[in-house]
Amino acid sequence: MPLNPNYTSKAPDENGIYSYSPEEHGVWKDLFTRQIAYLQDHACQAYLDGVARLGLSALHIPQVTSLDAKLAELTGAGVKGVAALIPQDEFSTLLSNRKFPVATFIRTREDMEYLEEPDIFHEVFGHSPMLTNEPFCQFMERFGALALNLPKEHLKHLFRLFWFTIEFGMIRESGALKAFGAGIMSSPSEAEYATSGEAEMVEFDLMTVLRTPYRIDIVQPVYFVIDSFEQLVDTLDQDIEAAIVAAKAAGDLPARFDLVA
């Protein structure tokens, strides 16, 4: 079940189809219309191309089965409907198989600006377009395999790499900063802040990422900038376990937010 008690996970019918109310489709339409207009000038080209290749539109919430089939044709990637947040091993196994989990409920209008946990707008609108990009898929697949093989005590630091790339990554394109992280794409408030020119941008560096703490319930105070998606893939050629050990020994960098208990 979702963490927020106001939400209930959807269950598919015998054909794998999820049912949504007119109001839920309306929330999707309003979010999609607003975000896609804003992102035309602020999202990376790979993301915008992915939206077009998947045929995503404001008309209705896409069905997971249709999206999965389309991604399989394009990059051999896919999506799988899940109840909500899932155990880390299950999550990493899906990634290692080029599958991304999709929480099937959608936020209400009260949470339009930002939702702490992933809903179907975050999963489909935020993540799925990037699954049409081959280097991005390679990074996701290799990250998932790495997460399954590292000692559990290293996973907190490893998932900082996931957070600051797949969720909140920025990329430099033709001298301009563009977004590709799903947390930016799917959150109006996050997108506006990340592309406002006021947010702190840091050149991507593995050790710095591994030493940077984050919170999931706020707009991010810092974003890391890559030069290409191939750069992300190449990052995993390093000895990641040794890098995490070194990051732990060096200690976390000062938090850019108020700490919570």
If you had to describe this structure to a student in words, what would you say it looks like?
- The structure is a single chain.
- This protein has 261 residues and is an alpha/beta fold.
- Helix content is 46%, strand content 10%.
- The protein is built from 12 helices and 6 strands.
- The strands form 2 sheets. A 4-stranded mixed β-sheet has the order 4-3-6-5.
- Helix 4 links the parallel strand 1 and strand 2.
- The relative contact order is 0.13.
Produce a short descriptive summary.
This protein has helices spanning 22-39, 45-54, 64-74, 88-96, 120-127, 134-149, 155-167, 182-185, 188-194, 206-210, 229-235, 240-250; strands at 78-82, 99-103, 170-173, 176-179, 200-203, 222-226.
Distance between the termini: 24 Å
The portion of residues assigned to helices is 40-55%
Low-confidence stretches: none
The level 1 CATH classification is Mainly Alpha
Any idea of the CATH topology? Phenylalanine Hydroxylase
Major sheet: arrangement of strands: 4-3-6-5
- Count of alpha/pi helices: 12
Number of strands: 6
